[in-house]
Amino acid sequence: MTGFRGVYPAIITPMTADGELNEAAFREVMEFNIQAGVHGFWVAGGTGESVLLEDEENMRIAEIAADQSRGRIENIMHVGAATTARAVRLAEHAAKAGVEAICCVPPFFYRQSDDAIVEHYRAVGAAADLPLFVYNLPQSTGVEITPELMLKIQDGVPQLKGLKHSALSFANVRAFTKMGLSCLIGNSLLMLPALTIGATGCVDGPPNVAPELWVEIWNAYNDGDISRAEAAQEKASDVTDLVRRFGLHAATKAILSERLGIDCGAPRPPGQPLTLEQRAVLLERLNELGLARVPVAQAGD
């Protein structure tokens, strides 16, 4: 275990042709990433389409993730929901399922006071009594966790361990780390520069599809080989650009389907799959980047 340091892909939620959770494909994607050397997963977050899933589906995902990892990596399970009661229920289940930590977006849609946000996190943290990561994603939630608000959360939530920082205010990485928090950068384009100002790792969707590239950034940086880390970041950033060009959910599922030789399905509606033309262009660029098909052994093989 790394103590929540390193590369934590925000794992996809593969779907069947009927639009249901594809457990077998989920396990394949996990195992591919584990074999590539990742340190953990951000499970059922934004990349995992959690807000489009039923609570029971998110609960099943927590169970699968804990079972498949078998203690080899650290699962940070997202339990965020619009109501405190739902988030608490998901947090209680995540702890029972056996994940190593939980994460949670702030309450969204209706603007809440700082005190209400702190109380939300206090209830969620107490429900699981696991390390808690705040999910700072103001582009989607409408709520930015500033250093000032984080201080209030830190004072009121003893389970607080850190955050995934996906806000645009890059300089706040340093502020959060000076608070003693584990700050995982939520932008895979910025992993290397974030590490240089105190970030403890990276959480994002693109590392799903080419985890070896982000693991190389981590290893090179920790070896003190900045030139090697810069080269790895450049390659990794090309992959992030490709994913963003075609859309996070559709592109990550299409690339993983190709690399692993499985069907990860389409995004859950209202998300849309790639067109045949888009898929052809994506796969051509994938070949140009040298991301070939990868055989994946099962855990214990």
Pattern of helices and strands: EHEHEHEHEHHEHEHEHHHH
Biggest β-sheet: strands ordered side by side in the sheet: 1-8-7-6-5-4-3-2
Looking at the structure, what is the overall shape? Answer: globular
Helix content: 40-55%
End-to-end separation in angstroms reads: 21 Å
Classify the oligomer: single chain
Low-pLDDT windows of residues: none
**Name given to the CATH architecture of the domain at 6-212:** Alpha-Beta Barrel
The main β sheet shows up as: 8 strands, parallel
- The number of helical segments is 12
Radius of gyration computed on alpha carbons: 18 Å
User: Under the CATH scheme, which class of the domain at 6-212?
Assistant: Alpha Beta
Please give the structural blueprint.
Blueprint: E1 6-9, H1 23-35, E2 40-43, H2 55-69, E3 74-78, H3 84-97, E4 101-104, H4 114-128, E5 132-136, H5 138-141, H6 147-156, E6 160-165, H7 172-178, E7 182-185, H8 191-196, E8 201-204, H9 211-222, H10 226-246, H11 248-260, H12 276-288
Parallel strand pairs: 1-8, 2-3, 3-4, 4-5, 5-6, 6-7, 7-8
Protein model, in words:
The protein is of the alpha/beta class and 301 residues long. The chain has a domain at 6-212: Aldolase class I (TIM Barrel, Alpha-Beta Barrel), CATH 3.20.20.70. The chain contains twelve helices and eight strands. β4 (101-104), α4 and β5 form a beta-alpha-beta unit. α4 crosses α6. It is globular, with a radius of gyration of 18 Å. The two termini are 21 Å apart.
